Amino acid sequence: MESAKEEVDTKIKVMFLPFASTSHIIPMVDIARLFAMHGVHVTIIATPVAASLFQSSVGRDSSLGRSIRTHVVKFPAAEVGLPVGVETFNADTAPDMLPKIAKGLNLLEKEIEKLFEELEADCIVTDMFYPWTVDAAARLGIPRLIFLAGSCFAHSAQHSVKTYAPHKDIKSDSTDDKFSLPGLPHRLEMTPLQLPDWLREPNGYTHLMEMIRDSERRSLGSVFDSFYELEGEYLDHYKKAMGTKSWSLGPVSMWANQDAADKAGRGQAKLEQKGKEEEEEDSGCLKWLHSKPENSVLYVSFGSMSKFPSSQLVEIAQALEDSGHDFMWVVKKKDGEDGSFLEEFEKRVKASNKGYLIWGWAPQLLILENAAIGGIVTHCGWNTVMESVNAGLAMATWPMFAEQFFNEKLLVDVLKIGVAVGVKEWRKWQEFGEEVVKKGKIAKAIALLMGNGEESVEMRRRARELSDAAKRAIKFGGSSHTNLLQLIQELKSLKLDRINGK
């Protein structure tokens, strides 16, 4: 009887609260699914639109006997003046709706905290953008883990800039004047204009980031979608710099999505049944790839949060056409701009069978693992970086906002599996600035990425080595596999201590 009671007592219930943005939801839900794969009772709390992005995967996991479910909370659209269905941040979210969505999420705080209690959570894992949850966990007497989106390198670099302010020594706004990032394992240089604005000068976002860091220090620890062989020096450095525990559990996309159906639908809303045209589009792009030789196709994608004005799309299109390489391009144009140039471009490259354009969402996991793909042009969003590393692909880097310029440094200067397109200035999300990267720069990066010279071949070799390391990390005895088991065991021990009144 004692052993049966102990089994009941040590079975832990963990609640996951992802942030309302596709790029944050996807990896965090994968982490939740990993917990469920390893015997944890998992509940994911989400609003209806957010839940639609992952519910099919949760349903498949549940049908396999895993203890995982979604608890949907209604988004207060009417209270904040939004139409029903607008409740997440993505490339299509209108700027005037952003503060309303944020307000709606704030209104849900008390309801979500009550759920933590009613569902008898033994631990909560919440996105970094919910710093209030550390106080909720403290009131309930349970541990809180913070999910830090992005690379450990980026968080280490941000900590360096925040601590030492090396950019303050640069007095000009020149894109050529560089400063070093102090205290990091490698000597790395950046320009002030490549830094996020909240690091250059304090603003409202700076205050939010300070709240996040404070909540992190008061949490049990942080979890990353990364693995030790990829950025182990920075995982060690970050733990020491912050004085906190951290667990790298990645690559979560490879580990959680081993089913073809999961790969095909990852990150795509399932609000209603796909139409015949959409299904044909999904299979059409893969059929086109299967017709191409190995490593011959360049994949171009700037993530779920980015759009470009026509002036930039023209330069990309001309560079792709001039490159001579077959390409697949996921296109999102800025709202209200004339798309006739791209429509003509699509007809031309379709006729020559040199290019394939995907408008909107793409089955990226299936595309990247296709043998025809030889390289990728990326915005350096961490999800895409991890997925490209899994696939063993080198990258042409085109950072725009958030922590993407830091990720570029990791890829180009530390790991040496990337070539910079040459973007000079960080910009706010959904703002386009005046910088237009010319086709010559884009073409030069593509030539190095896809070329046969010594530097190109070596870069691709390193990318393949990291892919092999990623596969080892999630196998039994691998770095991420061991981290997950140790974390779950620690949570069980904390539960037992709580039961025993320690």
UniProtKB/TrEMBL annotation:
Highest taxon listed in the record's lineage: Eukaryota
Keyword set includes Transferase: yes
Spans annotated as Disordered: 260-279
Protein name from the UniProt record: Glycosyltransferase
Family label: Belongs to the UDP-glycosyltransferase family.
GO MF annotation list: UDP-glucosyltransferase activity
Species lineage: Eukaryota, Viridiplantae, Streptophyta, Embryophyta, Tracheophyta
Record key words, sorted: Glycosyltransferase, Transferase
Record bears the keyword Membrane: no
CDD domains documented for this protein: GT1_Gtf-like
Bias-annotated ranges (Basic and acidic residues): 260-277
